[in-house]
Design brief:
Helix content: 25-40%
Distance between the termini: 50 Å
Largest sheet: 8 strands, mixed
Strand order of the largest sheet: 12-13-16-17-11-18-10-19
Number of helices: 14
Strand content: 15-25%
Number of domains: 2
CATH class of the largest domain: Alpha Beta
CATH topology of the largest domain: Rossmann fold
Number of strands: 19
Structural class: alpha/beta
């Protein structure tokens, strides 16, 4: 068999003032043609899962493009049209493929329209007609729309948060695609969207209700006719009408079965929605608590400045508090400030510098911090993920400098990137196990790799575009009422 493979992903924070242009995709991940196979073969990624199944079967892959950018503001129309065209040209040029496998996200908002993935699928479907199967893997932080469901044969969401199952979902999608092509199954879907949006800090699968809900969805009560179940947590930092929690079930030709299963899971989620409520811990209290913990390292999640959700990544409020409370053994990953990186390179390793760090993107993540620091090292920012998420793939923080601010090591980067893997610290020459405190700009993904060795994990909620206090966001377009913004 022959399948077209493509990837196009962005999680859009509509409150961000940073547009996501073509350069933003090329700065993170942008490969075309056969480069896609080279970049993803053997990796723990969705496309890696597609390729493993196809290689085992001896199938042929038609590669187009894989592009992703760090979460930020609206995707520019130029970036969207450029990347979409690469996929659409591949579809037009390969009319004899048996199906199309896509690794998308589900929360892409484009300048001019809300549903980037739905529009892409609409355009693909217009080319291939109604019969060609299109199987799509989505992030579980997706906005599930009617257009997505209408134009895809099957949508499959991640089941883990942190997203340690991307490869598994790629395998699931590719194996299901084969069954669809052979005519062995006939997927029919039912969607329900309870009026709720869980905050990401309490909606993860390491523990708690979301974990239990997934266990119920995949457990012995799941009917045999069900082909796929997805519990989409939604992405709360997008002010668009489809934002919110969603339950999607595909059954093999049995609409009644899919309906009963969706109702069962959606009703359970709604009945226990209060378990997603969140009590914030201030940065001051988080640092104070960390200093009382026996053992090291204590991991402080700077959740409100998580670039993995579209924050500026240049907030320095947690660093400011570490200094204020006299912490002498800590590391911060990372602070986005290309200007300071350039200054550090000019000063040179071992040199002293006085500068203003952070808060250069906007005024939503706190103010800048005047520091005196020693330049510990400079490096190109390239590292390989070795934790449970996207294992084996490579990433870059751009040119970086490690600054020592009174014993606190600060990784200052030229690119925005979520700190979800200890390899970021190790690549910077910092042993994370030797630090009393590690500050990570991440909300949940860090848990997969950091929690196994952390003496304790503390969530610190300060100012920023990924705060778990949703009441501070000026929503104008979302559907209302929506729990927990409205106590329904």
């Amino acid at each position: 068999m022959k399948f077209l493979v493509a990837g196009f992903a962005h999680e859009t924070n509509t409150f961000s003032t940073v547009p996501t242009d073509l350069a933003a995709f090329k700065a993170q991940s942008f490969v075309t043609g056969q480069e896609v196979a080279g970049a993803f073969a053997g990796t723990s990624t969705t496309i890696g899962g597609f390729l493993d199944v196809m290689d085992q079967r001896g199938d042929e892959a038609v590669h187009t493009v894989s592009a992703s950018a760090t979460p930020s503001g609206l995707v520019t129309r130029d970036a969207y049209e450029t990347i979409s065209s690469l996929i659409l040209d591949g579809v037009k040029g390969s009319p004899n493929v048996d199906g199309i496998l896509l690794a998308l996200h589900g929360a892409m908002v484009v300048d001019g329209f809300d549903d980037g993935e739905g529009e892409l699928l609409r355009r693909i479907r217009k080319i291939v007609g109604d019969e060609k199967p299109i199987v799509v893997v989505l992030d579980l932080h997706s906005h599930i729309t009617k257009e997505l469901i209408d134009h895809a044969t099957v949508l499959i969401g991640y089941q883990k948060y942190p997203h340690t199952d991307t490869h598994e979902r790629g395998v699931e999608a590719a194996e299901l695609m084969v069954r669809i092509v052979r005519g062995e199954v006939n997927p029919v879907s039912i969607l329900r969207k309870p009026a709720m949006i869980p905050v990401c800090g309490t909606c993860h699968t390491q523990s708690g209700f979301y974990k239990e809900l997934w266990e119920e969805a995949l457990g012995e009560n799941r009917p045999d006719a069900v082909l796929s179940t997805s519990l989409f947590a939604g992405f709360s930092y997008a002010d668009i009408p489809p934002m919110g929690f969603a339950v999607l079930v595909y059954a093999d030709g049995d609409v009644g079965c899919a309906t009963r299963e969706v109702d069962r899971l959606a009703d359970l989620a709604w009945s226990r929605r209060a378990e997603f409520l969140y009590e914030p811990t201030s940065i001051t209290d988080a640092v104070s608590q960390a200093l009382q913990v026996e053992g090291k390292p204590v991991v402080i999640s700077d959740i409100a400045d998580n670039p993995g959700g579209g924050s500026s990544n240049d907030g320095v409020e947690t660093l400011r508090e570490l200094i204020r409370q006299g912490v002498k053994s800590a590391a911060v990953g990372t602070v986005y400030d290309p200007q300071v990186v350039a200054e550090a390179i000019d000063v040179g390793v071992g040199g002293r510098m006085t500068t203003s760090l952070g808060a250069k993107t906007d005024n939503l993540h706190g103010g800048p911090l005047d520091i005196e620091a020693t330049v510990v090292s400079v490096w190109d920012g390239r590292f390989q993920y070795k934790g449970p998420m996207t294992t084996g793939s490579w990433a870059s923080l751009g040119d970086c400098a490690v600054l020592d601010v009174g014993g606190i090591k600060v990784i200052v980067a030229s690119k925005r990137l979520q700190c979800r893997d200890p390899e970021i610290f190790r690549a910077a020459g910092i042993d994370p196990l030797e630090m009393d405190i590690l500050v990570v700009k991440s909300a949940v993904h860090f848990r997969a790799a950091f929690e196994p060795f952390a003496a304790r994990v503390i969530l610190a909620d300060g100012p920023g575009l990924t705060s778990l206090d949703l009441t501070q966001f000026d929503y104008k377009r979302i559907r209302r009422p929506l729990f927990p913004l409205d106590r329904v």
